[in-house]
Amino acid sequence: MAKLIYCMKIYLFRSLFKVRASELSGLRQFNLFLIKIYLKKWYTSQCPILAPVNDLELLKDLIQYKSINPTVSKAAYDTFSRHLWYLSDSLAGLSLFDSRISNEERKKMTNSLRKDGTEIPPKRIIVDKDTIDVNEISDFITENSKQIFITNGISLNFLHKDPSLWEENEEFIKSRYRIGQLKVVNDVAERGVSLIQNFNSVLTKQEEQKQYLLQVVEYHRREKYSFKKSVNLN
Description:
Blueprint: H1 2-12, H2 21-43, H3 51-64, H4 70-80, H5 103-112, H6 147-151, H7 170-180, H8 185-199, H9 207-223, H10 229-232
Helix pairs in contact: 1-2, 3-4
């Protein structure tokens, strides 16, 4: 995010120093994409409940962006379409708790939970670019969407009630809180990358010992969340 802020500052204060026309054009296109597409999704990217709809909306936004910059639109769409984990039927059900979704769409999602899902999940989620504009989140829901709730011991009894009553239902509220505590993929992955960058080959170059070291460090970070003496003496 720091680099993005620098790019915006450079463009805002462009009159104070020399900037070549080609650089100015590049900065303008970069900041335009940042403001119109990137920022909103970035600020909500750590919320698992919002992730499925965010992914679907982002695909649609990237297609529409071709009216502004076809090259950037295609490059961003092609890249993002390789990372659609939250549109898989096993994770799309997280959006049942998304308050942005209408009651009508929630009814469709509830009905979609009766659809048969694939026995073997695909390695990559493929979305038809020609029909994505008319796709709704309910199109990605199947019977498999229940599994994440079952695995986490989360009740789905609220599904038997009308969606207009969900927001006031105690089971729904508790379930939404628990789902909200899940870690999104990028958050976990980036922490893992940071961990290996910090400790790779510091104490050992043996692969077996290295893996053990990383597990110890991760366990220590989780258990000893503070350096205060009161925490570490417990």
